[in-house]
Amino acid sequence: MDIKKPDNSRAKKIKRTAYAAIAALSVAGTSIAVSRMRPAAPSVERATILTDEVKRGGMLRDVHGLGTLVPEDIRWIPAQTDSRIDRILLKPGAIVKAASIILELSNPELQRDALDAEYQLKAAEADYENLKVQLNSELLNQKAAAAAVHSEYEQAKIQHEVDEKLRAEGIGADVTSKLSGVKTQQLGVRSQLEDERTQNAADSAKTRLLAQQSRVEQQRALYNLRRSELEALHVRAGIEGVVQVVPVEVGQHVIPGTNLARVADPKRLKADIKIAETQARDVAIGQKATVDTRNGVVAGRVSRIDPSVQNGTVTVDVELPGLLPLGARPDLSVDGDVELENLHDILFVGRPVRGQPNATVGLFKLVGDGSEAVRVNVKLGRTSVNTIEVLQGLNAGDIVILSDMSNWDSYDRIRLR
Predict the structure, then answer these.
(1) Which residue stretches of 96-173 are H helix?
(2) Backbone angles phi, psi at 77, to 5 degrees
(3) pLDDT, tens only, 386-401
(4) Residue 263: which of 81, 73, 87, 79 has the closest Cα?
(5) Closest C-alpha to 159, from 178, 138, 142
(6) Is 123 helix (H, G, I), strand (E, B) or coil?
(7) What are the tens digits of pLDDT across the range 340-383?
(8) For residue 5, what is the DSSP state?
């Protein structure tokens, strides 16, 4: 016989509704949990990054720049007269002595002027000698005249004494004694005047000779000038060294002041280093420096700082007193480092890519076994070429990433693989 089953459709409906509600709640909870999870840390190849360990101790502050070697002794040789290039005897690179002739010039007018100056000097010297003889003759004549008057004066004095004695004895006339006295007095005056004329003649002769001597010296100076200009047509090096530049050609016409050649002493070189203007503020004269010539490193000293800024750099001259390595020559490209100061007992690390002095930057610090790195804010201090002072955010022994990590600025943690 058939048994009627009870109707439980309502219970099944309630059960399905409960299952659906539980499933909806599970999905919502999972979504919320997933939304609150941090994004997965990106992976970075360890071989593509540069790391360094934070250290405590002394740090040498220095600045770096590129530059060239330049001679300390450079001599530009200018043309002294209007002339023409006849011959170029020595080319750039030639080793020269001070008297070595580099070029030969020509100027026919200058040769004529030098010859004229020579004849004028000889004429002035002849006039001087002639005047000297003439004045000596005149002075001798004057002395002879003065001597004659002086002789007459002495004779008159003797005669007056005789006449005066005879008058006193009553033998001679009184008028005779008076006449001889007057004559003696007049001759005395004449004798004195002749002595003064002799002295004036001597002074006049000296003055006239000095005037003529001045004319002779003037002509001699003109002659020497013409001779030096004529000699300058043989262009000499002037110093021992190497010919660097000869910027003229045979047949070229040059005017006074035109640079004909440049000679430099290759044994005395200095380095002109270009330092960034933002780093040059601490550079001072006398600071130690090192110059890398690619063939060796040479110690030097800052000798000059250019007061102006050109193309964002300041030129610093470094003198190099020591022996230069082989291959060091003018215009050679070099690297230079200037030592600013030695810092003691500070935290420092290799300079990060975006590490600027007195700035706060975010750096990734390795944690755990070194497979992960987290971002930390680090306050930086004074900088050097390759290192920088750490003021806050790191401790000695920490290892940080120095490479450019701008691609991971939105992450606080990365994984290293």
Answers:
(1) 108-169
(2) -105, 110
(3) 889 999 999 999 999 8
(4) 73
(5) 178
(6) helix
(7) 888 899 999 998 987 888 889 999 989 888 888 899 999 999 88
(8) P
